[in-house]
């Protein structure tokens, strides 16, 4: 399964408890078809004390959500959009279907 969503893209959540929220993709997991979005699907996790976290305790962190539940937000027009693909010589570019901006 190929995903057009990459790390650093701005996306909007389409469904679930965080519907309508926008955030930046922190991690893309193409093998699982999931993405981790900043500030979306925040869960509490119990962490044991270790070298980096001396205290341990309960930590909030973002969980992965299905890539089909997010849509790109075009950096040019600011609208939620689907992504088209265009060839530029050997390179394959991602294109906004609404305004034609490449990203």
Give a verbal description of the structure.
The protein has 103 residues and is mainly beta. The chain has no helices and 10 strands. A hairpin with an 8-residue loop joins strand 1 and strand 2 (22-29). It has a domain at 10-77: SH3 type barrels (Roll). The strands form 3 sheets. Strands 6-3-2-1-7-8 form a 6-stranded antiparallel β-sheet, with no helix packed on it. It has a two-stranded antiparallel sheet with strand order 4-5. Strands 9-10 form a two-stranded antiparallel sheet.
Give, in order, the helices and strands: EEEEEEEEEE
Average pLDDT, rounded to a whole number, is 93
Radius of gyration using CA atoms only: 16 Å
Portion of residues in beta strands equals over 45%
Strand order of the largest sheet: 6-3-2-1-7-8
Overall SS class: mainly beta
Helix content: under 10%
What is the first-to-last residue Cα distance? 21 Å
Which ranges are low-confidence, i.e. pLDDT below 50, for 5 or more consecutive residues?
none
Give a quick account of the main beta sheet: strands, pairing sense, barrel closure: 6 strands, antiparallel
- Based on the structure given, which CATH architecture of the domain at 10-77 is correct? Roll
CATH class of the domain at 10-77 equals Mainly Beta
Q: Assign an overall shape.
A: elongated
Count the helices. How many? 0
What attributes does this structure have?
48% strand, Ribosomal_uL24_CS, six-stranded antiparallel sheet, 0% helix, mainly beta, elongated, 103 residues, SH3 type barrels
């Amino acid at each position: 399964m190929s995903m057009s969503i990459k790390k650093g893209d701005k996306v909007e959540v389409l469904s679930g408890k965080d519907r309508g929220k926008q955030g930046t993709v922190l991690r893309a997991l193409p093998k699982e078809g999931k993405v981790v979005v900043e500030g979306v699907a925040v869960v509490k996790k119990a962490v044991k004390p270790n070298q980096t976290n001396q205290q341990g305790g309960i930590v909030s962190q973002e969980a992965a959500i299905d890539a089909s539940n997010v849509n790109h937000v075009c950096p040019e027009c600011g609208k939620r959009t689907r992504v088209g693909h265009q060839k530029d010589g050997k390179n394959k570019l991602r294109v906004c279907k609404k305004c034609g901006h490449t990203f």
